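Q: Convert this sequence to structure tokens.
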Amino acid sequence: MNLSEAFSLRGETALITGGGTGIGLAIAGAMHAAGARVVLVGRREAELAAAVKSLGAGASHIVHDVTRFDAAPGLAERAAREAGPITCLVNNAGIHLKKPAVETTPEEFERVLSTHVIGAHALTRAVAPGMIERRHGCVLFTGSMASFFGIPLVIAYTAAKSALVGMVRGYAAEFSAHGVRVNCIAPGWIETEMSRKALEGDPGRRAKVLGRTPGARLGRPEDIGWAAVYLASPAAKFVTGVTLPVDGGASIGF
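A:
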């Protein structure tokens, strides 16, 4: 296998939730550039259509809410029918809640878990059997620094992203012998709309973020995109069950 083959996604079809903006779109763009067909999933038609137009041929979209758990099999079937068998699932859809822990209601907590955790499981459950049958595929999750250390004001988000780390190990233990790898990327602080909302109006928090990041800057969405390409590619064929920080050193910084 030569260098270009090792990192190529030619012949692959990736289904990417939360794919219309931010990190999801960056993952889609990198995978598309590596040769994959990409199906972007999200709730907002206009954003998805614009994203697909920016990517060009080989990209398509489906409007879907990941919290409609019973609709996950239908989404998987439609995506496979329109773009080919799904060989890479990227569970990236998420919502953010910035609120003191004691003010976070059970209903708010549940809403965050439903999107990040249960929605991802519903779609993994719908897509993985086909991968297992073909003995080929990968599932990727988007994690967070909140899985590694305590961050104030995001208790529901922290719980959800921490759950994903354990799920990745569990799925990997079940699926890997069947040719299906499962991994997670834990972005550090990346310049996206979600991170801007989390940091806006809070210069002290932004300074703290940069101060504990050895790279001394926020990351770019494409930094996550290319990491996803690696984990989905033949170059990572013996990598499964891991959570890869892409964080400018934040998880080891002081």
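The chain has nine helices and seven strands.
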